[in-house]
Amino acid sequence: MTALTGAVLAQNALSAADLPQIGAPAIEYGTLSPVLAITATALIGVLVEAGAPRRARFGLQSAVAIVGILAALAATVWVSIHDLGKVSFEGTDLLARGKTVAEGALVVDGPTVFLWGLLLVFALVSMLMFAERGLEGGLSGFTGQAAVAPGGAGEREATMAGIEHTEIFPLAMFALLGMMVFPASNDLLTMFVALEVLSLPLYLLCGLARRRRLLSQEAAVKYFLLGAFSSAFFLYGIALVYGYSGSFTLAAIDTAVSNQIAGQNLLLAGMALISVGLLFKVSAVPFQAWTPDVYQGAPTAVTAFMAAGTKVAAFGALLRVFFVGFGGAQWDWRPLMMIVAVLTMVVGAVVLIRQTDVKRMLAYSAIAHSGFILTAFAGAYEGSAGTATITSVSAVMFYLAVYGFSTIGAFAIATLVRDGGGEVGHLARWAGLGRESPVLAGVFALFMLSFAGIPLTAGFMGKWTVFSAAWSGYAWPLVVAGVLTSAVAAYFYVRVIVLMFFADPEGDGPTVAVPSVMTSAVIAVTAAVTIVLGIVPGPVLDLAQNAGTFVR
Amino acid sequence: MSALVVAVLLPGLAGICLALARAVVSARGAAAAGAAVSVLSLICVVASWSARDGAYAGEVDHPWSTALGLHWHLGVDGISLPLVVMTILLCVLVCWSLAADVTSTTDDHEGAGVVLVALVLVIETASLGVFSALDLVLFFIFFELALIPMWFVIARWGDPGGGRLAATRFLMFTVTGSALMLVGFVVIAVTAGTLQIPTLADLPDPLTGTVPLLGGVAIAVGLAVKTPLWPLHIWLPDAHSKAPTVGSVLLAGVFLKLGTYGLLRVFVSVVPEPAARLAPYLGALAVAGIIASCLACLREHDLKRLIAYSSVGHMGFVVLAISTMSEVGVLAAVFASVAHGLITGLLFFNAGWLKQRYGSATFDALGRGLYTRVPRLAVVLLFAATASLGLPGLAGFWGEMLALRSTYEPSPALDRTLAWTLLTLAALGVVLTTAYFVRVVRRVLQGAATPRDDDIDLTRTEAGISAVLAVAIVLLGVAPGLLTGVIEPAVGAIVQVAP
């Protein structure tokens, strides 16, 4: 019996020549160079962590991160110039430019490259904030020993010895890698992997604040738990959509959706679950509950990085999944997205009014701004040939640029207003900042005006583009709701300005720390961009508009 | 670079330079510089007007952002020129009064006086920008740009009690209004596919239907807040009365005109069909405002609040004229706007001087018998009050007369029965206006004198400012053709002119 089986097996054994040929996957290394550069940077960071002496590590790590990002930025520019061919369909050029790469796992097209550029610039600016050591007496704003109990002897020893966690840089690079792959994914599985790669390092980074460590750890746990839930929803949604369409690839899903190949219930449930995962990341209502706690607890540099970067990545992915994959079912998802957009704007703006903490205030403002971006998304206006009307994709991308710079700048200023216990969070303590430091308060006021959408700041141009895209997509209730809520939110921003310039300081008032050149550079750059995009939005807007639509 | 662009931007740039150099500039020097810059700006406007060829003087039109269809498009025609000149004139006078004002120079903060001048100059640039913008978004940008500096002026230099609240209320009302106006602009831009006001005004087939009507409503409500139209006027009395003198003058003289000018330029001309459908409502609200403000004035005990309420009434006449959508209506609206700017400017200057002397502008604080105590000041107040109530021979008369005349013969937009009813009620408003100004004269100027230590008659600067405004008011009163001659050729840009 055994011998017989053996003989059969031997008979059935195939020789190598009988197997189908499995070629090596074709990887477009040149087109993927920005992603590869960031991967390499992250890995080099890990090696530096293992090999370099402790004293040299912080400087080395920050240098590696910054050089890596600059290299990736250069690669992105190169890709955008040389590697974005027009897509033709039956002999005519389409609006889309670019191609699918890595065996269809990723797609590098106009929007991808624009979002990569944004992400890299935001990461570069945030890394300058990460590397800031001038505010905590020569140490970074991250805890020295994350493993020891807050307030214990171990913490004091670590501080005395000048120990610092330098893993923050490779962690941030891995998060950046995930953010770059997320909106570039051409199939849902790659997207899920990217989601995890971007989220896990951020969960860790959130828990590493030097001051108020319990709050920081609470933020990390909260973010992790809720994030894990949302990832699970996302994954379940992928499974259902796979069950409906038989594919993970967005183009194949699009074909299935357009042909309505099976019962709609599976598709609707899948779409709903996927949108839960994505809307969580953009902190849209009703998935916004984590935002204020996490923004408040996380180290401010991480909050800035997260607020700008995650939003770019998640909105990029949201647009790609819903416009490419579920474009054929837009009459199913658009009404719901409109409701989410209105809720997000209203809740964000109304709750904003009662905030008393700077970082929570910026968190609710982030929620409200997500709502404004969602108006353009729910408008789903894809443009028409021959007109220059702003499309939803370019409006969202332009708004992300506008919002990202202002929010990073605002967080950078929040790191500078300090007293003996670290950053001064309570807004009441910001009273009289205008007298203490007119320039700093002036720049913060500029960011507030930009958030409020006052003309000649970038925020106004951003609002104009999203509302015009929403209107073109016949989503006029969103435009009306958006404009009214931005007026409500403006009330709060104005109150902050009044507080800084007209109110009398409470007690001694806060002191404004003198930062190193890095944070100063962050503030200068973000303020300059906020003004320039408000006065000459043309170049960036044209760039967003020329990015065209998604490659399928 | 056209002379008009220089005229618009020069004051603002000068203001920014002054604010940056506030450590080395005295408030008096800054105010003098501000007046000089404004005069330069006036020269530039006159230069570009005299060199005009085509519909708009000094027209510049550069694409700004092709993706948005946004243009840097400025130009001045007969509708805007009178308002531009009036704005510059008032700003020169405001700077003059600041140069002589001792309280702003001895302020508790270094350089505060300079900053005030700088803010006035930025407001001037923003207002000139609104009056000359020919692109909807550009119009909106300048409209909002005027807001923030004015808010600072009221909050920082206004009355210690209630100034901040009034400023916040002013800001919130106007920001909400502008937000609605922006919605309207988005609607118009998307439906018509252009932002250029001259193109929109000359569309071969004007926008009609529900969507443009919604846009029109949004624009009208936004502008009605600024004008202000009853019942959206409630921000105004506080803002005007709590603001410092320069703030009140600019608010009444220039800011309210942004609203009325906007109604002409971006409402009636851009969306004529929706405007015609909304005209009866505008007219009715305007007349309600006239009556309500007159009744409020009859019971008011604070001179500054009284003047503020009277502004609501006068703006009611302007809006009534606009709502007729006739040629005479446009003429009346511009004329009455300019006249109100000059007259109310003088009234607010006067009230400010009184408040400076007596610490408050309530009738009780002013006492009685100003004729005996400060005769020249009292005469100026009497002159301004009679001009405001529309005495023939002064500028205010022509504004109201033309407004009523246009209501007698409205365009088909306004039903004739309704128009004549409105006319009757508005004429009642004229009577009531006379009544409350007579009450002021009797209560404050006449009567047994109650002398105070603070009884100081007009200073040289005050006399100068009064003289300039009085001459302008008399000039327009006896020779209205000076102004109507400029306005008339341009009326076609706003409404269809009968051949």
Question: What does this protein structure show overall?
Answer:
- The complex is a heterodimer of chains A (552) and B (499).
- By secondary structure, chain A is mainly alpha-helical.
- Chain A contains 21 helices and six strands.
- Chain A has a three-stranded antiparallel sheet. Chain A has a three-stranded antiparallel sheet with strand order 5-4-6, with no helix packed on it.
- The radius of gyration of chain A is 24 Å and the shape is globular.
- Chain A starts with a helix and ends in a 6-residue tail after the last helix.
- Chain B has 499 residues and is mostly helical.
- Chain B folds into two domains: 1-145; 146-493, no CATH class.
- In chain B, helix 1 (3-20) runs antiparallel to helix 2 (27-50) and helix 18 (375-388) runs parallel beside helix 21 (460-478).
- Helix content of chain B is 73%, strand content 3%.
- Chain B has helices at 3-20, 27-50, 80-100, 102-105, 112-132, 136-145, 147-157, 163-192, 197-201, 210-226, 236-242, 245-268, 272-298, 303-324, 327-358, 363-366, 370-373, 375-388, 395-408, 416-445, 460-478, 481-487, and strands at 57-65, 70-76.
- The model of chain B is unreliable at 104-108 (pLDDT under 50).
- Chain B has a two-stranded antiparallel ribbon.
- The A-B interface holds A 387-390, 394, 449, 452, 454-456, 460-461, 463-465, 467-468, 471-472, 476, 479-480, 483-484, 486-487, 490-491, 494-495, 498, 501-502, 536-538, 541-542, 544-545 and B 64-69, 137, 140-142, 144-145, 147-148, 151-152, 155-156, 164, 168, 171-172, 175-176, 179-180, 182-183, 186-187, 189-190, 193, 214.
